[in-house]
Amino acid sequence: MRTIDWVTAAARPDAASAGADDAGWIELIDQTALPGELRVLRIATVAELIAAIRSLAVRGAPALGVAGAFGVALAARQFAGDPAGLAAAVHEIETARPTAVNLARGVRRAAALLPGGSSAVLREAYAVRDEEVASSEAMAVRGADLVSELCGTRPRLLTHCNTGGLCTVTTGTALGVVGELHRRGALAGVIASETRPLMQGARLTAWELARWGVDFRVAVDSAGPFLMARGDVDAVILGADRICANGDVINKIGTYAHALGARRAGLPFIVVAPESTVDSDTPGGAAVEIEDRGAAEVTTLSDAVNPAFDVTPYDLVTAIVTDRRLIRLDRGDKP
Ligand code: MRU
After folding, report:
1. What is the tens place of the pLDDT at every residue in 196-249?
2. Stretch 271-279: mean pLDDT, rounded?
3. Which Gene3D superfamilies match (predicted)?
4. Residue 22 annotated as catalytic
């Protein structure tokens, strides 16, 4: 079997062209250890991959799709000659987290190649990865053009959660747009909301922006709408875990509050996500399972409710930028 060698490119810029041998493992950055430590996990079993997905060592919709596809290649190797074990392993990867459509999609794409053998599965996993790399690059350019069109020169952007190379493979979705604007000299700065309870903004977005040399500050989540109202922000830009047929956007908890703040302040609210996140089979946000991550991540002093994502109604979204389309929801377009 060829190497399953995948590391998000924030750690390994050559990852997109990683070579092949017989090792049979997945490498990925342990996002739970950042920003304190840049640790690379080497994952050799399905159980290890599922633990990495559930603990958010690997996270973010496109990265989950890529990890899931490579996970099927791992499963094909681990359960060779055991069809029932293989089917159960594939199902377990597919359902390891429920909300981002990319995970189940990546798994199903790779699993469809199982009759062709493990090398066919692995080829498909590499294709899923390479498509995400290309998507990120396309979104960065299209999104940067849109931000400049809507906001003029050197806007101040607010973003939520982490949407950089860590959550894709390289570049990112919304943060890829930020990086492109920065390269063009067309960005004044970024406010990253900290994204409680797991701090993807304060830990991961801040880490990526610092590496890119982007001028940024972190804000507590509840400050976002006030900063918009005060005139400190020119547009909100973030990613998605699923985009429904009616344009409803499922994304990290707190997104809806930022959309309300943007609407109140009259600011563009821009969602950047690959086509692999557009789910035309799901009519609207009410049909999506919102992951509940339990109380422990929030507090040990009392019980807690901990929905990991929320639904932002389509009529609060200005535009969705994908790798192939600009969908102007404010002008009546539909995904
Ligand atoms: O729980 P997470 O960290 O996996 O949630 C990730 C997000 O909500 C991101 O904003 C989303 O995946 C978009 S990034 C392409």
Report:
1. 999 999 999 999 999 999 999 999 999 999 999 999 999 999 999 999 999 999
2. 98
3. translation initiation factor eif-2b, domain 1, Translation initiation factor eif-2b, domain 2
4. no
Which structural domains are found in the chain, ordered by start?
Answer: 4-131 (1.20.120.420), 139-331 (3.40.50.10470)
Q: Among residues 5, 221, 234, 241, which one is catalytic?
A: 241
To the question of pTM greater than 0.80 for the whole model, the response is yes
- Protein residue closest via CA to atom 6 of ligand 1: 60
Q: Which atom of ligand 1 is nearest to the CA of 252?
A: 8
Around ligand 1, the residues with Cβ closer than 6 Å are: 56, 59-62, 100, 161, 163, 167, 173, 200, 239-241, 251-252, 273, 308
- Residue 48's alpha-carbon distances to 92, 173, 246, 262, in angstroms, are 12, 27, 36, 40
Rounded Cα–Cα distance for residues 208 and 239 (Å):
15
